[in-house]
Amino acid sequence: MSEAINPKVLLQRIDQMERELEKLRLEVLKMRAENLPVEEVDEETLKDLEKRFEEYKSRKAKVVSGKEAVRILTQMLED
Q1: Range list of H helices, 1-79
Q2: Which UniProt keywords apply (predicted)?
Q3: For residue 38, what pLDDT is reported?
Q4: Which domain holds residue 60?
Q5: pLDDT in tens, 44-71
Q6: Of 1, 49, 60, 74, which is most buried by a Cβ count within 10 Å?
Q7: Is 2 within a domain?
Q8: Which residues contact 79 (CB under 8 A, 6 or more apart)?
Q9: pTM for the full model?
Q10: Structural domains of the chain, count
Q11: Domain membership flag for residue 1
Protein backbone atom coordinates (compact mmCIF):
# COMPACT_ATOMS: atom_id res chain seq x y z
CA MET A 1 0.00 0.00 0.00
CA SER A 2 1.42 3.40 -0.92
CA GLU A 3 1.63 6.20 1.60
CA ALA A 4 -0.08 9.55 1.04
CA ILE A 5 2.27 12.41 0.25
CA ASN A 6 1.74 15.58 2.26
CA PRO A 7 2.19 18.46 -0.22
CA LYS A 8 2.94 20.97 2.56
CA VAL A 9 5.88 18.93 3.81
CA LEU A 10 7.07 18.43 0.24
CA LEU A 11 6.91 22.17 -0.46
CA GLN A 12 8.78 22.99 2.74
CA ARG A 13 11.52 20.53 1.82
CA ILE A 14 11.76 21.94 -1.72
CA ASP A 15 12.04 25.47 -0.33
CA GLN A 16 14.76 24.37 2.10
CA MET A 17 16.67 22.62 -0.68
CA GLU A 18 16.46 25.74 -2.88
CA ARG A 19 17.96 27.88 -0.13
CA GLU A 20 20.71 25.34 0.53
CA LEU A 21 21.51 25.11 -3.19
CA GLU A 22 21.81 28.88 -3.51
CA LYS A 23 24.13 28.96 -0.48
CA LEU A 24 26.29 26.28 -2.09
CA ARG A 25 26.39 28.20 -5.38
CA LEU A 26 27.59 31.29 -3.55
CA GLU A 27 30.23 29.28 -1.70
CA VAL A 28 31.53 27.84 -4.98
CA LEU A 29 31.72 31.29 -6.54
CA LYS A 30 33.47 32.63 -3.47
CA MET A 31 35.97 29.76 -3.47
CA ARG A 32 36.66 30.23 -7.19
CA ALA A 33 37.25 33.94 -6.65
CA GLU A 34 39.50 33.34 -3.65
CA ASN A 35 41.62 30.78 -5.51
CA LEU A 36 42.35 33.08 -8.43
CA PRO A 37 45.36 35.35 -8.19
CA VAL A 38 44.30 38.98 -7.85
CA GLU A 39 45.46 39.84 -11.36
CA GLU A 40 43.26 37.03 -12.79
CA VAL A 41 40.00 38.11 -11.15
CA ASP A 42 38.27 39.98 -13.92
CA GLU A 43 35.54 42.55 -13.46
CA GLU A 44 32.87 40.26 -14.92
CA THR A 45 33.53 37.51 -12.36
CA LEU A 46 33.59 40.01 -9.52
CA LYS A 47 30.36 41.69 -10.64
CA ASP A 48 28.63 38.31 -11.07
CA LEU A 49 29.65 37.28 -7.56
CA GLU A 50 28.47 40.57 -6.08
CA LYS A 51 25.17 40.37 -7.99
CA ARG A 52 24.46 36.82 -6.83
CA PHE A 53 25.34 37.72 -3.25
CA GLU A 54 22.98 40.71 -3.29
CA GLU A 55 20.20 38.61 -4.85
CA TYR A 56 20.68 36.01 -2.17
CA LYS A 57 20.67 38.57 0.64
CA SER A 58 17.51 40.22 -0.66
CA ARG A 59 15.89 36.81 -1.33
CA LYS A 60 15.58 37.65 -5.02
CA ALA A 61 17.79 34.76 -6.08
CA LYS A 62 16.55 32.88 -9.12
CA VAL A 63 14.88 29.79 -7.74
CA VAL A 64 11.71 27.88 -8.44
CA SER A 65 8.91 28.82 -6.08
CA GLY A 66 7.00 26.20 -4.17
CA LYS A 67 3.90 26.81 -6.29
CA GLU A 68 5.92 26.47 -9.48
CA ALA A 69 7.45 23.24 -8.17
CA VAL A 70 3.97 21.87 -7.45
CA ARG A 71 2.82 22.85 -10.94
CA ILE A 72 5.81 21.15 -12.53
CA LEU A 73 5.41 18.01 -10.42
CA THR A 74 1.68 17.87 -11.12
CA GLN A 75 2.28 18.24 -14.82
CA MET A 76 4.90 15.48 -14.72
CA LEU A 77 2.49 13.15 -12.91
CA GLU A 78 -0.28 13.87 -15.41
CA ASP A 79 1.96 13.07 -18.39
Answers
A1: 7-35, 43-57, 66-78
A2: Coiled coil
A3: 66
A4: 7-78
A5: 877 887 887 787 777 776 666 777 777 8
A6: 49
A7: no
A8: none
A9: 0.44
A10: 1
A11: no
